[in-house]
């Protein structure tokens, strides 16, 4: 089994040491490098070729948001998981829009951080439906009309079936759940998701969910959920 190559980025040496100790003890994970600032990331990525970057979002010189945007703009970019102390934060949303595959809280139990890295390395996002909805509720009222117009213009590139799949992804459903709900095979769902990513020039399912929200396609779900509380 090939080990997952992991780069750790955090300005706190104690946090890095703790993460290195915790992650390095797993048989399927190899720590290939550490950085104390976002400005070091691209050079280290070129040198170490990680599969996943565990990225602190708040650093004094170049923050994790900027570093994530720079990384995800590159060809063959590694996956990025953002480290944060906040459940719902505008910077987290910006990092996800930039292409981060998800985020974990710094006080997350070690086993869950390991699981998140493994999922991202396998091509799966690390946002549960609950967390996805929480982030979207946090963004309610913050998206300007121009963002909605742009999102709707982009979604217009999809056919009806792809649009249905995009909305289902936005609801946080798995491929198996989408297949059941839309009466198609899991393989067909995967094909639709791949086409949506290509047509909309997106990196991952998280970005599909955020774009569907921006276009106003998930508001009924969110409003119904809020009324139920």
What does this structure look like?
This protein is of the alpha/beta class. Helices cover 55% and strands 12% of the residues. The protein has helices spanning 13-24, 41-48, 64-72, 90-98, 110-121, 129-139, 145-155, 160-170, 175-182, 186-200, 205-214, 219-227; strands at residues 4-9, 29-35, 52-56, 79-84, 102-105. The chain has a five-stranded parallel beta sheet with strand order 2-1-3-4-5, with helices on both faces. The chain is globular, with a radius of gyration of 18 Å. It starts with a strand and ends with a helix. Residues 222-229 have low confidence and may be disordered.
Break the fold down into its secondary structure elements and pairings:
Blueprint: E1 4-9, H1 13-24, E2 29-35, H2 41-48, E3 52-56, H3 64-72, E4 79-84, H4 90-98, E5 102-105, H5 110-121, H6 129-139, H7 145-155, H8 160-170, H9 175-182, H10 186-200, H11 205-214, H12 219-227
Parallel strand pairs: 1-2, 1-3, 3-4, 4-5
Helix pairs in contact: 3-4, 8-10, 8-11, 9-10
Gap between N and C termini: 46 Å
* Overall average residue pLDDT: 83
Order of strands side by side in the largest beta sheet?
2-1-3-4-5
Number of discrete helical segments:
12
Number of strands: 5
How much helical structure, as a percent, in the residues? 40-55%
Q: What overall geometry do the principal axes of the alpha carbons give? A: globular
Largest sheet: 5 strands, parallel
Q: What structural class do you assign from the helix and strand content?
A: alpha/beta
Radius of gyration: 18 Å
Give the helices and strands as they follow along the chain: EHEHEHEHEHHHHHHHH
Indicate the low-confidence ranges by residue numbers: 222-229
Report the portion of residues in β strands.
5-15%
Pfam families: GerE, Response_reg
Protein name: Response regulator transcription factor
Keywords: DNA-binding, Phosphoprotein, Transcription, Transcription regulation
Organism: Streptomyces tuirus
